[in-house]
Amino acid sequence: MALIKTRLELKDLAEGGRILWRILNTVADAAKPGISTHELDLLARSEMKKAKVQPAFEGYQISPDIPKYPAVLCSSVDHEVVHGIPHKDKILKEGQIIGLDLGIVHRGLYTDAAVTVAVGQTSSENENLIDTTREALEAGIAMVKPGNRIGDVAHAIQSAAKAAGFSVIRDLIGHGVGHELHEKPDVPNYGRPGTLEILREGMVIAIEPMFTRGDWRIKFKEDGWTVVTADGSPSAHFEKTVAVTATGHEVLTK
Ligand code: MF3
Ligand code: CO
């Protein structure tokens, strides 16, 4: 069952969410042709240090046979869906699209957010993919209120992908967040209305649609982390941390 946060925890989560959103946008503004993804990671690190918050991703372990996550930022270029590891030799080029995902810990509480941006000018197809994924996240968030279900959120996201002719990456999902980076409940990006967990006041979830212009199937790179589309199509990812309030919701990463 999903955890219910106290009033005080929600206040600290909102404070952390605002800090995270500011840092994420600072990193996104720096994602220009010629910069390396490692430099973006360094920027995120220094901003976190200045704000006196801790990274949530560095040292994270998904399974015992894969090395701990070595950076504070996930930077996923073009057909990379999520969890791209920053590298010194990965230099951004005009026309690419990059997903930037950051998590922080503030007063012991986790928040998680992501955006996708174009590096310089990109194609209208990529612009459309980015816009649709951002709008799908907003459509999902609009369904967050007490009494609605996770399936209502998931269905709104899926419908936005379908209407635009994009595919939902089915094997990766959003999650509860707060005391840990990943908590109950699961928040899938496709599903039927009226199904899955009932939303209740005080729940906090990270909603994170990932869409692609091609087929939904994914594979992992040899580094054990980087998720790519199996057919090489570009993909976009947006994520916000959202609290369920008495009457609706409050976006914490804003
Ligand atoms: N935001 C990512 C997620 O919710 C977290 C990346 S995994 C990490 O899956 F190892 F980088 F932390
Ligand atoms: Co997440």
TrEMBL record:
Gene Ontology BP, a term: proteolysis
GO cellular component terms attached to this protein's record: cytosol
Pfam families: Peptidase_M24
UniProt keywords, alphabetically: Aminopeptidase, Hydrolase, Metal-binding, Protease
Residues annotated as domain Peptidase M24: 15-246
GO function term, MF aspect, one: metal ion binding
Sequence positions that bind substrate: 83, 182
Cofactor note: Binds 2 divalent metal cations per subunit. Has a high-affinity and a low affinity metal-binding site. The true nature of the physiological cofactor is under debate. The enzyme is active with cobalt, zinc, manganese or divalent iron ions. Most likely, methionine aminopeptidases function as mononuclear Fe(2+)-metalloproteases under physiological conditions, and the catalytically relevant metal-binding site has been assigned to the histidine-containing high-affinity site.
EC number: 3.4.11.18
SUPFAM superfamilies: Creatinase/aminopeptidase (SSF55920)
Record-annotated membrane-spanning stretches: none
Domain of life: Bacteria
Gene3D superfamilies, A to Z: Creatinase/methionine aminopeptidase superfamily
Binding residues for a divalent metal cation 2: 112, 175, 208, 239
InterPro entries noted in UniProt: Creatinase/aminopeptidase-like (IPR036005), Pept_M24 (IPR000994), Pept_M24_MAP (IPR001714), Pept_M24A_MAP1 (IPR002467)
Reactions catalysed: Release of N-terminal amino acids, preferentially methionine, from peptides and arylamides
Cofactor(s) annotated in UniProt: Co(2+); Zn(2+); Mn(2+); Fe(2+)
NCBIfam families: met_pdase_I
Function: Removes the N-terminal methionine from nascent proteins. The N-terminal methionine is often cleaved when the second residue in the primary sequence is small and uncharged (Met-Ala-, Cys, Gly, Pro, Ser, Thr, or Val). Requires deformylation of the N(alpha)-formylated initiator methionine before it can be hydrolyzed.
Family of the protein in this entry: Belongs to the peptidase M24A family. Methionine aminopeptidase type 1 subfamily.
SUBUNIT field: Monomer.
Protein name per the record: Methionine aminopeptidase
Gene name of the encoded protein: map
